[in-house]
Amino acid sequence: MFLAWVWQEIRMTIASLPVRAAPRCGAGFTLIELLVVIAIIAILAGMLLPALGRAKARAQVAMCQNNEHQLALSLIFYANDNRGVFPPRTGQNRWPTQLQPGYGDVKILLCPNDPTNRARRVISSTVAKPMAPDSAPRSFIINGWNDYFQEVLHLPFSSIGGKSISESAITKPTETIVFGEKAAGSEHFYMDCFEGQGNDVDQIERARHLSGGKQSKVGYSNYAFADGSSRLVKRGRLLYPLNLWLVTDYWRANRIFSK
Questions:
Q1: pTM to 2 decimals?
Q2: In the chain, where the domains are located
């Protein structure tokens, strides 16, 4: 309807122009005709660019979501091959290396909307051989299972190196996060809620998509869950009314943040 109205206005404007003799061969546009064309282009650009921006943002969300889905599946494949146990926590050959047989290309480790993705393109153009998974640019962080180690295995945070969790210990797989989007620039591999003020507060990007950025009060980020699914979670629904990173009922309900 709007375009029809614009076209009608343009036709009326042209019709109101004074009739002139037929121009000589090779004569150009008049100034008014040129301005009309420019106005049409400006209107169309103003209508199309926001739509293209939204389409690009949605495509980035979908690609990021698919990458996390692949990581979640590789975690399940690993457990299937290792008696139902997830990869142990290590200081080298960490989960990106341990899970690589399941996801393959290290490009899976990146979200296209992560600023780190620009650094990947620079690195890729200067490195001849494939990059080691632990050293590759990475947007995602794996659950460190701190509450399970403390509440169930009675291990202090300082003693969880080399430990792992069994797939069966996660009683709410559709609502328990295994992978999330880490804050841009963070070097953390494991989301440790009992480290410092908690990595679920200071190392997680909770509004990477469809928002105004990290400081935004709205927005979403992608998360992969223990059942192999991945989906957007709204910023305010990640840590409240339940903390979706945690496994035990006690900590899920008591380590919560409304902001």
A1: 0.78
A2: 2-10+32-254
